[in-house]
Design a protein that fits this description.
This protein is of the alpha/beta class and about 325 residues long. The chain is about 30% helix and about 25% strand. The protein folds into two domains: about 200 residues, Alpha-Beta Complex (Quinone Oxidoreductase, Chain A, domain 1); about 120 residues, NAD(P)-binding Rossmann-like Domain (Rossmann fold).
Length: about 325
Amino acid sequence: MKVAVYYGKDDIRIEERERPTARGGEIVVRMLASGICGTDIMHWYRKRKAPYVPGHEMAGEVVEIGPDVKCLKVGDRVFVSHHVPCYSCHFCKAGKYTACETLHKGNYWPGGFSEYILVPAENVRYGTIVLDDTVSLEEAVMIEPFACVLEAYKRVEPQSQRNVFIIGSGVSGILHILYLKHHGARVAALDISKERLDYAKRAGADRVFSTDEFSQEALKDVFDGRFPDTVVVCAGAIGAIKTAMETVERRGTVLMFAVSKEDIPIPSVHFWRNEISILFSYGASPQALNEAYELIKSKKVDLGWMVTDSFPLSEIAEAFKTASLGGRHLKVICRS
């Protein structure tokens, strides 16, 4: 079978590997669509794992099941989560599933950018969703990134989700806007790209700012003369993080949904005197994945339009270059 192997920046190669076989509670899935995540093109973050097969936003068709699998059949279209918790450790028992060591270490093999994927029994049991016929492949690849957004808001107090400022209007930023507007929040968005701001408007943002026109006073005008209760960082630039820390209301929250290569300086005295919280969010629990799927299936949230570019697996190098361009290229996916 063909797989895409990441060796480094601008170095992704199509190679041949032996197709896996399902045993026990495992399944083999033929990849139909796999999304490029923003972290896939964070080369400083990914190079430590090279060479490896990336891809963790995968939907496909079950082509083989192990003898112990009773919940699925050959031909099912499925979404498969790459990370699942163990449900038995200290963190899982406390409901803190994204802190589970099993969740952090587990994965399907060899990765989402492969013609065929071997799904471990744990991922079959806890991380596989049979897709309704009404759910498109474009929507299916958005389940995991959207679930990460839902997971993040489980950590933000509900009263702090009413007035929100999104810094960075790429895929993550747009997903935050869509989620927040679904719940009736007032949302402002900031980005350097006009095309990305157009996407933010389409997602329902009440006000968008380019970096050239942005000011703190203009932001306050959106929220009745006050700063937003929550500022979400969806861009890894230090400048974006600095802006977030300067524009959050007293007793507000800075939600770090993106990370920078460098450690971030925190104005501790300012945060202390104004009781500002800073939160980080990683990954998604099975519960958030199911919630995301139900919102997508019910068409309460429309995500399919976010897929702007589609490439065959054989052209994955070009797909990664396109995803790195930003601008009008929002969500880029590969198909088998």
